[in-house]
Amino acid sequence: MRVKRYVVSALPEAVSLIRSELGKDAVILNTKEIKVGGFMGMFRKKKMEVIAAIESNQANQSSPQAKPQRNPDPQVDAVVEQILQTAQRTATAVMEPPSVQAVSSVPIAELQKDKIEREQFIIDEIRDLREYMLKLSKQQNNLISMSEHLIALREHLIEQEMELQWIERLIQAISDKESEEKIVFSKEQIWEHAAELLQEWLQPYSGSSISSHVRVVHFVGPTGVGKTTTIAKLAAEQTIKQGRKVGFITSDTYRIAAVDQLRTYANILNVPLEVVFSQMDLPRAFKQLEERELIYMDTAGRNFRSELHVSEVNSLLQTTEANETVLVLSMTGKTKDMSAVANHFCKYGVRKVLFTKLDETSVYGAIFNLIMNFELLPTYMASGQTVPDDIEKFQVDSYVKQLLGSNSL
Ligand SMILES: Nc1nc2c(ncn2[C@@H]2O[C@H](COP(=O)(O)OP(=O)(O)OP(=O)(O)O)[C@@H](O)[C@H]2O)c(=O)[nH]1
Ligand SMILES: [Mg+2]
């Protein structure tokens, strides 16, 4: 670490000296008022002593000669200035010499080490803040250079709760296209390009239905998302439209009347139902349903933000047969909670997802975030309580239309 002392009339004078001599990464460690000059102890002038420091490995880099100049940004500089002054106050506070007792009882080397650690902490804090400020100012500059239609698209997607990282990526891609084509896009062109790009990004995850070669399908998900209703909808489609022999298993003995709910659908659809209380009951249930071409297994909704519950349900889903698990998520859930649940299930190898209650929302960004962040394969979208009608296969183009709303073409 390189430490330098400055005697100046006022702090701003010291700040610019420190900047030019030690570089922009330097920090002020201490300031103190002193008196200099005079005659026989009289007419002494008030001055300020400023101690500044810079990490030795940065001293050379930071010197203005050695480092390429970054573009000055007055806004960031003003904030950095403020940060430096705050840091100077903090440094003064933390660098206060320890009390007499402390000096006598703590070895000097330890005090020195402690001091260096504190200095390092302050330097790191300032560096992080400066990076953050530069990022903010870059974002602001980008916004200023955006056309009103791009800003409208950005705002629309923020309202749709699409994650900012994806929005910025989309806006950047459209801006790049504009620069390539050397024109300013009209409103229609912007929304058209947005639709095209979103479809292109989602395409690798599209077209995933529940596999037809799989005999056992488990449905898992938080409480009340519509697992049981969805099973009834899909079973109706399989039995009535496809003529397949379907069987039900439920392990939802957790909630009173849960079994009755599935039993009602089983009776209506004339589908046999087996109830399992633990993993040990599964072989018996599969034996009972061995004639069935397709088995849908209902599970109890739990708080799957807890990984313990996820591992519990997962232990129930082990079968020797070809099987897959579908995570059911309701669009009325909060995006952050849905992400936490998806994250836990992904750890257990769940790849497919089914979204319900689209009829109860007009905010669709969570679907995009979940697919892109967790590489989940969307299967169906349910949008109502009516069995069997209110369900359809996930279609990228219609989803993108929903996401872009009335502006989509
Ligand atoms: N609006 C709307 N309601 C739905 C949809 N799917 C299911 N529901 C309703 O959501 C409620 C809960 O549905 P269930 O099928 O019992 O949900 P579940 O996930 O099995 O619930 P638990 O087993 O208790 O975890 C019921 O009132 C359903 O009618 C949907 O797509 N839209
Ligand atoms: Mg249920």
Number of helices: 15
- β-strand amount: 15-25%
CATH class of the largest domain: Alpha Beta
How large, in whole angstroms, is the Cα Rg? 32 Å
Distance, first to last CA: 61 Å
Number of domains: 3
Q: What structural category characterises the helix and strand content?
A: alpha/beta
Bound molecules: guanosine-5'-triphosphate, magnesium ion
Overall number of strands = 11
Determine the mean pLDDT: 85
- Low-confidence segments, given as residue ranges, are 59-70, 98-103
The SSE string, one letter per element, is: EHEEHHHHHHHEHEHEHEHEHEHEEH
The CATH superfamily of the largest domain is known as P-loop containing nucleotide triphosphate hydrolases
As for the CATH topology of the largest domain, it is Rossmann fold
Question: In percent, how helical is the residue content?
Answer: 40-55%
Label the CATH architecture of the largest domain: 3-Layer(aba) Sandwich
> What's the story with the biggest beta sheet?
8 strands, mixed
Would you kindly provide a written description of the structure presented here, covering whatever features stand out?
The chain has 409 residues and is of the alpha/beta class. 50% of the residues lie in helices and 16% in strands. It is built from 15 helices and eleven strands. Helix 13 runs parallel beside helix 14. The two termini are 61 Å apart. Bound molecules: guanosine-5'-triphosphate and magnesium ion. Magnesium ion (MG) binds next to helix 9.
